[in-house]
Write a structure and sequence with these properties.
The chain is of the alpha/beta class. It contains 11 helices and 8 strands. The chain has helices at residues 27-38, 55-58, 64-75, 97-117, 146-157, 173-178, 227-245, 271-288, 308-319, 332-342, 370-382; strands spanning 6-8, 46-48, 122-125, 162-166, 185-192, 216-221, 249-253, 294-297. It has an 8-stranded parallel beta sheet, with helices on both faces. Helix 8 links the parallel strand 7 and strand 8. Helix 1 crosses helix 9 (308-319), helix 1 (27-38) runs antiparallel to helix 10 (332-342) and helix 7 packs parallel to helix 11 (370-382). The longest helix has 21 residues, at 97-117. The radius of gyration is 19 Å and the shape is globular. The relative contact order is 0.14.
Length: 390
Amino acid sequence: MSGRALLMWDDGVTGYDFGRSHPMDPVRLSLTMALVRAFGLDRAVDVVSAPSAGDSTLRLVHHQEYVDEVRRVSLDPRSADGSYGLGTADDPAFAGIHESSALIAGQSVGAAEAVWRGDAAHAVNFSGGLHHAMPGSASGFCIYNDASLAIARLLELGAERVAYLDVDVHHGDGVQAAFWEDPRVLTVSMHEHPASLFPQTGWPEETGGGAGEGSAVNIALPAGTGDEGWLRAFHSVVPELLADFRPQVLVTQHGADTHFEDPLAHLAVSLDAQRALQVAAHDLAHQYVDEGRWIALGGGGYAVVDVVPRSWTHLVAIAAHQPIDPASDVPQSWRDEVYARTRQPGPARMTDGRDAAFRPWEAGYDPADRLDQTILATRKAVFPLRGLLA
């Protein structure tokens, strides 16, 4: 197993562009890569590009008729009429939509293959994490579900236990749906409560079906949850599940849209808490996963200058075993690039100045507290199905 992490990157992923008025501005990807380089992290990881996902790979999750439609619309965007979720406000059609989506998917699949082979223990694809796409339709800014494709490829290669952890503010519905009845995949999603946010799924009672009952876990947080509650919820549920499941690979999705500056949701999480959870995910991989195999993906995040690049640069640094001190100044060269490209001033430091502390579940809980009610609802729904004490 190589000691160096992989960073999956191809400039072509910035072609995933729904247009100037769309929240998912690809500048968030190019600015993240620029910040990674400004900190010299591109010398601490192996920066590699994988081929685009071909039809045989896409069919691991997606229906061929859907892939055919994406390819058709890619050639003639004006023909998109909302069929298959293409040509909607969330997922506008654009020229090259198939090619850029397949390229992003290829980076996540390539990360999975490399980690499974032992080329590296950790791999990051911050352009990925497009977790809403369904087998036969686009949804929520997502065309191909690269996270599901990476997991499906791991299963195809022989993996018997894969854990998927999703901490995007939105429910990881597409990944949950793909493996709803598959006990080989444990999906855990921690997100804003479905009563107040798209896609209105991810209730604690959604625990999987058939042979997969107990393999879907949902932590639905009250709107307004901040650092302490976010981290408390994570640590009150996830470590016990991973200790029991003992995955051969951990796949994590780190949507940065939990941040208090994000314009599309209602949590109040800081960059410092996001970084603390990234550290926790890395530690859990080394503690509970065979050979520490960890694939980290990006996801949502629409504060594209102030939040996303810093959050995902921390993620790359953690995977590289060269964490950045949160008190570090952001390199001036990067801030100059931000201003030149966006006419916005870039953030000055790699922190929001918050203390990412939390009270552990073992210290006791308050049955009248909304957050503790959320944690308990999740534990009661799924822990007994896995033979664990709620």
